[in-house]
Design a protein that fits this description.
Helix Hairpins; alpha+beta; single chain; 6 strands; endopeptidase fold (from Nostoc punctiforme); 2 domains; 341 residues
Length: 341
């Protein structure tokens, strides 16, 4: 009968290894463990960052949309010209038709034979002169039609190129629109994850910050030192106080930052380009120490956000999604530059 061997007890080193492994496993997060939710302050900072990141593509979208509208007008004009030229060609064809028929009816007989057969040489000569003139008119009409056909071909090629550019511009606008909406959707998701109490706290914190910045007690009418067109522009902007920011909007019920500046100066008879960057490039630059009411303020950089200086160290602007047009201290955001329309 075979003897059964008793199993060897595990060595101390193996026991230690197993113990370390078990400890390591116990430190791994289980599936039921979720990542800690961000605090209200963290959500607020993330949302502010997303709104700020949405401003640059918003201005790019505005520029592309402006180009798209210009191309659309050019395409419409080209199509109208194509239609007119085609009508002119059709009219010339109708004129050439009878002339060609007359020449065909008389052109098959040699002129000397026709003169020999003619019972009235004077009548023949009269007809010959008419046919000569008919041939001249036909040649002129043919040349005119050929010229119109060349113009039509050139116009058609130009129209096709404009249509191609228009489609490319539409695609760019759609891409920028998606980029902006993606940022805003992400911000909304963060806000929707907050409880009602957290949202209330976040709104209260925002109101407190606005009050400390001087944005909550903005006067409803302007009575500052501006005059002339600048005063008209500022008064228009003041009349928009409390209206919501909406990206891509130029009024009258909502505005984005450059939309408000452009509409304000337009009310004073001054036409400005559409975007922050275009306004910056077109305006006469002024130093911060030389600011006058009505000057355009650029914060952060030359293509992201702008507003209008109203005097006494304050500016009016359309801030961002979720906020309304307000008056803030000039240095509430990093000052970049200023220009005068």
């Amino acid at each position: 009968m075979a003897k059964h061997r008793r199993p060897k007890p595990p060595s101390r080193s193996r026991i230690a290894t197993l113990g370390m492994a078990a400890g390591a496993v116990s430190l791994l997060p289980t599936q039921s463990q979720a990542a800690p939710k961000p605090t209200v302050d963290e959500v607020r900072k993330q949302v502010e960052q997303l709104y700020e990141e949405a401003e640059a593509p918003t201005e790019e979208y505005n520029a592309v949309r402006e180009k798209q509208e210009k191309l659309q007008r050019e395409v419409d004009g080209a199509q109208d010209r194509l239609a007119r030229k085609q009508e002119e060609i059709n009219e010339l064809r109708e004129k050439i038709g009878p002339l060609a028929a007359a020449q065909y009816r008389s052109g098959g007989i040699d002129p000397s034979v026709e003169l020999f057969l003619s019972g009235d040489p004077d009548d023949y000569l009269d007809k010959a002169q008419i046919l000569d003139r008919t041939g001249d008119r036909q040649a002129d009409a043919l040349r005119a039609m050929q010229s119109k056909q060349r113009e039509l071909a050139q116009e058609r090629a130009t129209a096709q190129q404009r249509l191609k550019s228009l489609e490319e511009t539409r695609a760019k606008a759609a891409a920028k629109k998606d980029e902006v909406q993606g940022k805003l959707t992400e911000a909304r998701k963060l806000l929707n994850n907050l409880t009602a109490a957290q949202r209330a706290k976040m709104e209260a914190d925002q109101e407190r910050d606005d009050a400390s910045a001087g944005a909550s007690d903005s006067p409803s009418s302007y009575n500052g030192p501006a005059s002339g067109r600048a005063k008209t522009a500022i008064e228009f902007a003041y009349a928009q106080l409390g209206k919501p920011y909406e990206w891509g909007s130029t009024g009258p019920n909502s505005y984005d930052c450059s939309g408000l500046v452009g509409a304000a100066w337009r009310s004073a008879g001054v036409s400005l380009p559409r975007t922050v960057k275009q306004m910056y490039d077109a305006g006469r630059k002024v130093a911060k120490s030389d600011l006058q009411p009505g000057d355009i303020i650029y914060w952060y950089n030359d293509n992201q956000h702008n507003g209008m200086y109203v005097g006494n160290g304050k500016a009016i602007h359309a801030p961002r999604t979720g906020k309304n047009i307000e008056i803030v201290p000039l240095d509430s955001m990093p000052f970049f530059a200023a220009s005068r329309p």
